[in-house]
Write a structure and sequence with these properties.
Radius of gyration: 25 Å
Number of strands: 5
Strand content: 15-25%
Number of domains: 2
Strand order of the largest sheet: 1-2-3-4-5
Order of helices and strands: HEEEEEH
Shape: elongated
Number of helices: 2
Largest sheet: 5 strands, antiparallel
């Protein structure tokens, strides 16, 4: 006569084995998915950087050549900001970093700003916002070409006092029915240029590796 406790124990062991296998498969899948997500994010960031600075202008590993800026209030944030440095051999080419326009119509507008070593803008892109569709979302390059106008500009081009929307006496167009959004971005880009001018040497400084 079979012992019922032996039968229950056998079923318990089988279920436990299935649980171990299932858990291992889930962990393996999660690990592989996590690695893929990280790589996809890396490639997306690299593509965004190369949209501002042509890859043929630099030859370093730009995603590894970075510095961290703590409490960069001038860039609109109290968070740590990562700066990606493009170099041709050892010659500085451009710095790419995020800046925040804190006073968009519907809140913060996150920007990716590229500035060449000579102080000229490589370009600006909006990477996150909550602006109104059909009005403020014209800051996206796939909606309009407004954001593309920053390429090649600097603090001296136009004159610094012209770094404002036309409604405020500046050179930059506002959108029909939406002045707050472009005003916020123009101000944020101007501040980023000021920050770069004041910290240019530090931004491109090569930190000696600790032994």
């Amino acid at each position: 006569m079979n012992n019922p406790y032996t039968h229950i124990l056998r079923i318990g062991l089988i279920l436990a084995a299935f649980a171990v296998v299932a858990t291992s498969l889930v962990a393996l899948t999660e690990s592989n998915t996590h690695d893929k997500i990280i790589e996809n994010e890396r490639q997306a960031l690299l593509a965004a950087i190369n949209a501002l600075v042509d890859h043929d202008k630099y030859n370093n590993d730009i995603l590894m050549d970075t510095i961290l800026l703590p409490n960069t209030v001038d860039l609109g944030t109290n968070d740590i900001t990562t700066v990606y440095r493009a170099r041709l051999d050892t010659t500085p080419v451009a710095a790419i970093f995020t800046a925040i326009a804190p006073n968009g119509y519907n809140g913060e507008i996150k920007l990716l700003v590229g500035i060449y070593s000579n102080g000229n803008l490589a370009g600006v892109r909006v990477i996150k916002h909550k602006e109104t569709p059909g009005l403020g979302d014209k800051i996206n390059e796939n909606k309009a070409d407004w954001i593309l106008q920053f390429k090649g500009l600097s603090l001296n081009n136009p004159d610094e006092y012209k770094w404002a929307v036309k409604k405020d006496g500046g050179d930059f167009d506002q959108f029909t029915g939406a002045t707050i959004t472009p005003r916020a971005i123009v101000t944020a880009v101007k501040k980023a240029l000021h920050y770069f001018e004041q910290h240019r040497d530090a931004l491109f400084a090569i930190t000696e590796a600790k032994s």
